[in-house]
């Protein structure tokens, strides 16, 4: 299998950390790559503060842990279990990798492809590969999954940080470190923005097949309660136009009907991949975004690339991965860290305003 840039960067950082200072030409030879590739890698890592550059050589930065430590000779190995390596979790993984590399650790990854029954075996594989601590984002996709699968997570024998997940309130996972996006706050940002533009209560169009989707639904109910609003219609179930075309079509027609009858002039939709398809289908049904419907989407993975750039709530995915890895390394390297209180860290999403929403206009 061809080595990816992330794996090559890991090897490069390990070499520099082991030796303290290395010439770029020597790095190219040790890595088995062209000199131009080594220079490009060095520039990328130096731009993120992971290396210091000077006169054709690179050095291990001060403050990033001691130089002269070989891999396996003091550098902790972190294991990460993620349900996917693309879309939402690509940025979470990237943030964790950057933090681990910057602090002299190695990150190894297993992806479970949203198969919740396989999560425990993947975690065991990470431990067998030498992981001293785990970042765990279980493959939960149904409301009952936290209760069904929390026991194996709570029983892990190494320091563990739960990533972008919540256990059952009052359950054993409450006693674990966790880092997550505050999706309820993100939904509140979207609703406030639309109401502030002069719209009545926005309609929610959302999936129900992931923890993020369920958190968005719960956040919508909470936002309406906080703002004293009442939903114009029940939540419209959403799905991929390619995987479930019949459901997508029913949702599109239901949303178009809500606009035509004046019951909705604004909507929040999870997620933005589905939303880009929805905007095109609504246009075919003679509903224009933003002319007839102001639309905010959730996730901000591809929202800016839509024909009409979509206003989007952006969870702090990269920061979640980074802070989770930093917390895990603190547990692994600080004396008596395991005796310290557990940490629950919620990071706030941001709202990125683009062209897909404005004040209501007469149809």
UniProtKB/TrEMBL annotation:
Keywords: DNA-binding, Transcription, Transcription regulation. It comes from the Bacteria. PROSITE patterns: HTH_DEOR_1, HTH_DEOR_2. The keyword Transcription regulation applies. Residues 5-60 form the HTH deoR-type domain. InterPro entries: DeoR_HTH, LacI/GalR-like_sensor, Peripla_BP_I, Tscrpt_reg_HTH_DeoR_CS, WH-like_DNA-bd_sf, WH_DNA-bd_sf. This is Substrate-binding domain-containing protein. It comes from Streptomyces niveus.
């Amino acid at each position: 299998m061809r080595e990816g840039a992330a794996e090559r960067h890991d090897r490069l950082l390990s070499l520099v950390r082991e030796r303290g200072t290395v010439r770029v030409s020597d790095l190219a030879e040790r890595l088995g790559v062209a000199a131009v590739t080594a220079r490009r890698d060095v520039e990328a890592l130096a731009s993120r503060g992971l290396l210091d550059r000077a006169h054709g050589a690179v050095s291990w930065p001060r403050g990033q842990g001691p130089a002269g430590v070989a891999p396996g000779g003091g550098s902790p190995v972190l294991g990460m279990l993620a349900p996917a390596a693309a879309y939402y979790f690509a940025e979470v993984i990237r943030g964790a990798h950057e933090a681990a590399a910057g602090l002299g650790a190695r990150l190894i990854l297993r992806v479970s492809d949203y198969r919740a029954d396989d999560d425990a075996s993947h975690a065991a594989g990470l431990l067998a590969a030498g992981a001293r601590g785990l970042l765990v984002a279980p493959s939960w996709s149904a409301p009952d999954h936290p209760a069904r699968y929390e026991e194996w997570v709570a029983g892990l024998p190494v320091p563990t940080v739960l990533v972008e997940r919540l256990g059952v309130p009052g359950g054993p996972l409450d006693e674990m470190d966790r880092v997550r996006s505050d999706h309820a706050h993100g939904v509140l940002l979207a609703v406030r923005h639309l109401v502030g533009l002069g719209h009545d209560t926005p309609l929610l169009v959302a999936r129900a097949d992931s923890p993020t989707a369920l958190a968005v639904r719960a956040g919508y109910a909470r936002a309406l309660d906080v703002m004293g609003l009442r939903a114009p219609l029940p939540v419209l179930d959403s799905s991929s136009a390619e995987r479930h075309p019949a459901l997508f079509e029913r949702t599109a027609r239901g949303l178009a009907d809500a606009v035509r009858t004046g019951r909705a002039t604004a909507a929040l939709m999870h997620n933005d991949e589905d939303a880009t398809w929805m905007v095109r289908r609504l246009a075919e049904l003679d509903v224009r975004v933003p002319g007839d419907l102001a639309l905010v989407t959730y996730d901000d993975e591809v929202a800016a690339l839509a024909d009409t750039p979509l206003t989007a709530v952006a969870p702090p995915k990269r920061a979640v991965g980074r802070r989770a890895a930093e917390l895990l390394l603190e547990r692994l390297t600080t004396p008596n860290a395991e005796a310290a209180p557990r940490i629950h860290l919620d990071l706030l999403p941001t709202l990125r305003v683009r062209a897909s929403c404005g004040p209501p206009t007469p149809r």
